Amino acid sequence: MKNARLPQRRTLLIGLAAMALVPLAGCMTKPIHPVNADGSYCHRKGRSYMPKLTCTPEAVPTAAAEAEAKRFEGTPGALTVYVLRRSWGDASVVVPVTVDGAAGAATIPESLVRLRLAPGKHSLSAQWDGRDADIAIDGQAGEVRLVELKGSGWVWGNTFSWKAVPLEDAKERALASKLVADVHRLR
What we know:
By secondary structure, this protein is α+β, with helices and mostly antiparallel strands. The protein has helices at about 1-20, 65-70, 165-175; strands at about 40-45, 50-55, 80-85, 95-100, 100-105, 110-115, 120-130, 130-140, 145-155, 155-165, 180-185. The protein has a 5-stranded mixed β-sheet, covered by helices on one side. It starts with a helix and ends with a strand.
């Protein structure tokens, strides 16, 4: 009699475990939040009842522009550089990125920026809390580069650093990020 109940218990335990895991399936991939009425976009960190919002200061590109940018194709006559900001411990702050000392775009956690620049050498700089980090980019017309702005936020402060990454290595994370700026600077 004791052995006859063992398969029933096992089945019951497996069923309960499966039911407990079903709600977690939605946590595996977070959906991108909708754009605000004013065109800005906010990244939500934390629970929905008390979220920490980090919003873009300007309107984000349209859904059509985002779909086109996420094909990750080069632009004839331009060097295309993607700036990806997506790391698990990223600080919930807006970090402006400048291109060759001129205004570029503001980044937020889990965001993507497309820069179309004149072929040649360029300097990207990120500024936060009175600090900055720089990276040099060099490329020809039609080429595509991806750089990652890796951030971490701790009680004692935020840090950011740049890393050049092959597009194939970061494409999945870039596709899961929101395009927050599309900058054309071909001069």
